[in-house]
Design a protein that fits this description.
7-stranded mixed sheet; Rossmann fold; 7 strands; alpha/beta
Length: 200
Amino acid sequence: MHIFCLDLEGVLVPEIWIAFSEASGIPELRRTTRDEPDYDKLMRWRLGILKEHGLGLSEIQNVIRTIDPLDGAVEFLDELRALAQVVILSDTFTQFAAPLIEKLGRPTIFCNSLEVAPDGEITGYRMRIKDSKLSTVKALQSVGFDTIAVGDSYNDLAMIRAGKSGFLFKSTEKIKADNPDLPAFEEFDDLMSALKKAIS
């Protein structure tokens, strides 16, 4: 049995932190997992910037509510779920993901959680499990699934390489150049064709 494991940001919806960077006027917050392989380092840096500017969860959530899925993402996801089970594996947080998942038709998502003070300050974060994407893929394989993964960032590479098939989608030129053996696509139609071949 096959199961598709998809990243969320950059694959189905725009990057949350880039959108918040533009809305807040803080260019430093444009840095994402496409730029920084060390997720813990990236998040500690982000939380420091938020604290410096006095920004909390509500400000970020207000921006997230304005974000729509990428063009064609909803249709792509609907077609994919007709072929096999789909799970979204994301390093985002439940407090961020809810409105986006609603717009995507409520697919299953496994992500992390934020630690938030009563005044709304984000004081920390809790990862669901160490190496969450790879760990989840391995767990799915242990119960009989052949995993097929799609992602765009450094933190997706392990799950992409661990399964039956894996693909880069809307990734950076550097990541594609550093991983020339991974098929890379820019359009949902092309990705769908590759995914259909992967399960045939």
